[in-house]
Amino acid sequence: MLENLSPQPADKILALVSAFRADPRTDKVDLGVGVYRDASGNTPVMRAVKEAERRILADQSTKAYTGLAGDPAFADAMIGLVLGETVARDRIAAVATPGGTGAIRQALELIKLANPEARVWISNPTWPNHPSIIRYLGMQMGEYRYFDAETRGVDFAGLKADLSAVPSGDVVLLHGCCHNPTGANLTPEQLAEVIAILTNNGVTPLVDIAYQGFGDGLDADAAATRAVAAACPEVLIAASCSKNFGIYRERTGILMAIAADAATQPLTQDTLAFLNRQNYSFPPDHGARVVTTILTDPALRADWETELEETRNGMLALRAQLADELRRLSNSDRFDFLAHHRGMFSRLGTSPEKVAALRDHHGIYMVGDSRMNIAGLNAETVPILAKAIIDSGV
User: Fold this and answer.
1) Least buried of 112, 262, 298, 318, by fewest C-beta within 10 Å?
2) Among residues 118, 184, 210, 238, which one is catalytic?
3) Distances from the Cα of 230 to the Cαs of 195, 247, 364, in angstroms?
4) Is position 121 annotated as part of the catalytic site?
5) How do residues 23-67 score in pLDDT, each as one tens digit?
6) Of the residues 103, 121, 127, 304, which is catalytic?
7) Catalytic: 210?
8) Which is it for the CA torsion 50, 55, 61, 62, positive or negative?
9) Among this protein's residues, is 48 annotated catalytic?
10) Would you call 127 a catalytic residue per the annotation?
């Protein structure tokens, strides 16, 4: 049987990691992998996470299952973090998942059960795992224009034209904040137009919010998701705790499904629990318990928010430094978009050949579509990157 298996497409980002590790150069710079790093190149454990884990270790008396949907307290805490008071709690079904990826997978499984003919529309470009999972599940997929390679901003005219043609019953996948891979976000005014299109066309939004707190702040980064949730009768939301809590390896995420009314919520909740049972039975709990402990303790939450703000402001400072250095070297403002983008990523909008030149001649590693991880930089490597960009004619 196993001899009949076919090779699967290699993950380009993981291949880039391997190539970086094999590179003997000491001045190489890794801007490929999508993991937050501090100025020393480490992915630290946050203070509040360490304290929450200490408390859990001291107080936890059992490792028994929590339930198919996970701990209800985790759902309540995350709904509060992402949605605030935007939607009545009795309309929201929720399940814990193995990371944000697990939440996306379960959301797509739910769509498949509810409407097997639904087409899922994704931004061009988007996170590579979005189309990969959609294809694996055998679902129909479409794309809407998003990134303008000239301005390095949102191609809003193209986006509106494409979304206006999406038929009723289909699903549009939106990035809640800090668009991956481009870093370019919709303005509030643009978002309002998108919401009007979705509601008028009877389209269901699926929001992937993986970087809340990394852009403009916790509430500001949730604003788009909350606006969509307030306006659309049904919304799916996949949220990740990997980045803003720094618990990547704990695989902590949640899927929320907002039903049109409270009467539909129990069936939705039961279906989500059913899907968890089919895919992995009970979701992991440790990371979820860490998050719950932090969000429900005022002192821990305050410390977590302080450290998250330090992280966010550090990335903004790197963006500003890089944009300033490129302005100085190029004597132009064509790289100012880097300071306007938000989150961990920006897309340079250059060719794969020039990305390869950055790697081969300067030891700068980024994804072939020119997505770079701003958090992979520090104050010392920003000038190195800026010079390499100019020397390579990007």
Assistant:
1) 298
2) 210
3) 10, 29, 43
4) no
5) 999 889 999 988 998 888 899 999 999 999 999 999 999 999 999
6) 127
7) yes
8) negative
9) no
10) yes
